[in-house]
Amino acid sequence: MNKKILIFAIITLALDQITKTLISFFMNVNDSWVIIDNFFSLTLCHNFGVAWGFLKDAKIVIIVGTLIALFLIYHFVFCFKKSWRNNMAFGLLLGGLAGNLIDRIIFGYVRDFFDFYIFKYDYPVFNVADIAIVCGVILLIYAVIKGEDVNENSSRKK
Fold first, then answer.
1. Do the Cβ atoms of 73 and 137 come closer than 8 Å?
2. CB under 8 Å, gap of 24 or more: what pairs does 31-36 form?
3. Active centre residues (catalytic)
4. In CA terms, which of 11, 110, 124, 153 is 20 to 30 Å from 51?
5. Worst-scoring range by mean pLDDT, 13-22, 61-70, 71-80, 143-152?
6. DSSP assignment, residue 53?
7. With 0-12 CB in 10 A as exposed, 13-18 as middle and 19+ as buried, what is 153?
């Protein structure tokens, strides 16, 4: 695997685990610190499912699904053209998935804390790993649109 991808993944994983550890040290579950009134709070939640609580209490299914996703992402690293953006995308995805996987294995849940209230909608609470995963997916979608999803050395040329 590309060293740059590994560096992005390690930085993402470290930021995720450090922020989760700090929040967990200073806050109790369901504590909320208002940062910007009616917009942003830090609220410590334990998420036993995935997005919007889907698959709640299906820890083994989520762990196996995450491991499969990590394997597939590792495979796709070699299919995409090598670029700074693609390296970052794969690093963000791998680091984010690993961060939430570590939480699930150690604690049985994911520690979430970013809590936004926008246009009268209270968004699900999330964490650094979730941000990394979403940004990585967006960057890969952009790469596909730009035609960077086929490496010149890949066997699946267009």
1. no
2. 32/115
3. 112, 130
4. 11
5. 143-152
6. G
7. exposed
Q: Is the dihedral of CA 66, 145, 136, 48 positive or negative?
A: negative
Q: Which of 94, 99, 98, 93 is nearest to 112 (CA)?
A: 99
Record the tokens describing residue 147, joined without a space: 């035609």
Q: What is the pLDDT of residue 147?
A: 87
Q: In sequence order, which ranges of the chain are alpha helices (DSSP H)?
A: 3-26, 59-77, 84-107, 128-145
pLDDT digits (tens, 9 = 90+) for 69-85: 999 999 889 888 889 99
The residue length of the chain stands at 158
* CA dist list (Å): 34 to 25, 43, 48, 115: 17, 8, 24, 9
Q: Please give the model's pTM, rounded to 2 decimal places.
A: 0.89
The predicted-structure confidence for 92-136, as pLDDT tens digits, reads as follows 999 999 999 999 999 999 999 999 999 888 889 999 999 999 999
d(CA 144, CA 29): 40
Question: By three-state DSSP, how is residue 116 classified?
Answer: strand
Position 148 pLDDT exceeds 90: no
- C-beta separation of 124 from 138 below 8 A: no
